[in-house]
Amino acid sequence: MRHSKDKQISALLEECTDMMMSGTSLVACLECFPDDATELEPLLATVASVRELRPVPLRQASIASNSRAAFISEVLRLQEPRKAGNGPASRGRRLSAAPRPATPRARPISLVAILLVIFMSGMAISGSITLAADARPGDLLYRVRTVSENVRIFFTLETETRNELRAAYRQRRIDEARTIEIQRLADKLNLRGLIESFDTAQ
Amino acid sequence: MNLLSWLVSALSFVTFGVFKGDRTRIEPLGDQQGLLEEAIRAEPVALGMLYDQYVDRIYAYIYHRVGQADLAEDLTGQVFMRMLEAVRTGRGWHSSFSGWLYRIAHNLVIDHYRRKGRTTFIYIDDAEPVHAQTGDPVRSVENQFEHDRLRTALTKLTEEQSQVVSLRFLEDLSIAEVAEIMEKTEGAVKALQYRAVLALRRVMQQ
What is the rounded distance in angstroms from the CA atom of residue A88 to the CA atom of residue B34? Predict the structure, then answer.
């Protein structure tokens, strides 16, 4: 009988504690359970007096800051190469990661970054040169074309091949100049025809 | 333009593939689970974030148990140093991080009391000043003495009773959270809570 009564009071204590933690007053809690108020009241009074201890003095800023700095400094020391073999990898922790190498972790990151930069630069350069193949004087990529031609001549070792390349590029310049001249004449003719058509219309 | 589009796509794909595949990112994930995964791998930023999340709660818990700010600061620092030691040796938390951290704090408080004795006395000149909060210094001193008497009474409970009182009534944790920290069932925590309050009342009446 006493055991079941204790169980009942224990359950009510739990419920009233939750109510008090939500801000309900002790009196209001007791009013919810008038039949058991006599037994509940001293227990809830004890809980209320304990809860008066809750306010905690603010931590001193300088001490808190120093404590944090000491912790961070210890964390950074953890980044140094650690000893292997002590970890419980065999325990199958839910949060465990794959075993990490003992070498500094910054090295793989910088290597990947360097390789990436080289790769992307190569892609950018080769793409530009390919696009510049049809560039004409005045186009944005024409400069890329002429520079690539000069680079190709520079890296050609045999003198004969070099001379052939120079001749080919010289001929290309002449062809480009002729093309530009023809285009200018054509534009002029088109413009003249346009003006004549205006005069005729008037 | 087809070639240009191909070039841009290729560069984007390469960039995405490299960064997506890079497991050595430094910034921790936004969610708590990701943060804990980063921390168990000793990522400095993640460990710093966990420290900032929990330091005040652990300090408050220890302060409630020992009643002295300097001592609480010292023990709080030790809690996080033990956390780092566990991360370093691979003996970190298995399930609940907060539960694990509170257990470290609890053990440090117990060790402190075992070294120093269950009741600590300080010279009146070394006592922290009592500030009159209500404007009535007499009432403030009476309140302070009552609080000190209560703290002393808490030290006379068993370790488990003292812990459940602190976690439930001072830290405002739920039964489920306390059960996780104390590694007990919720029913066991409720029963322990009831016995703790009865015992505390008996001690206060002595």
Answer: 20
Closest alpha carbon to A63 in B120, B91, B75: B75
Single out the residue of A148, A173, A152 nearest to residue A161, CA to CA. Answer: A152
The span from the CA of A86 to the CA of A74, in Å, is: 19
Q: Which residues in chain B are closer than 8 Å to A87, comparing Cβ atoms?
A: 89-90
Q: How far apart are CA B191 and CA A149, in angstroms?
A: 88
> For B149, how many CA atoms within 13 A lie in the half-sphere containing its CB?
14
**DSSP string across B40-70:** HTT-HHHHHHHHHHHHHHHHHHHHHHH--HH
Q: Look up the pTM and report it.
A: 0.57
Q: What is the pLDDT of residues B74-91, one digit of tens each?
A: 999 999 999 999 988 888
- B42 min Cα distance to partner chain A (Å): 7
pLDDT digits (tens, 9 = 90+) for B102-116: 999 999 998 998 887
Q: How far is A161 from chain B (nearest CA, A)?
A: 30
Contact B84 A109 (CB under 8 A): no
- The two tokens of residue A22 are 């939500």
CB contact under 8 A, A97 and B40: yes
**Binary contact (A120, B88; C-beta < 8 A):** no
Separation CA B103–CA B94 (nearest Å): 13
B36 and chain A: CB distance < 8 Å anywhere? yes
Query: CA-CA distance, A88 to A96, in Å (whole number)?
Result: 9
Q: Do A50 and B89 touch (CB under 8 A)?
A: no
Task: Give me the residues of B, 73-92, that contact A with CB < 8 A.
Answer: 73, 76-77, 80-81, 84, 87-92
> Which of A6, A11, A127 has the CB atom closest to B7's CB atom?
A127
What is the per-residue DSSP string for B102-149?
A: HHHHHHHHHHHHHHH-SS----GGGSPPPP-SSS-HHHHHHHHHHHHH
Distance CA B58, CA B51 (A): 10
Q: Are B170 and A54 in contact (CB under 8 A)?
A: yes
ipTM strictly over 0.85?
no
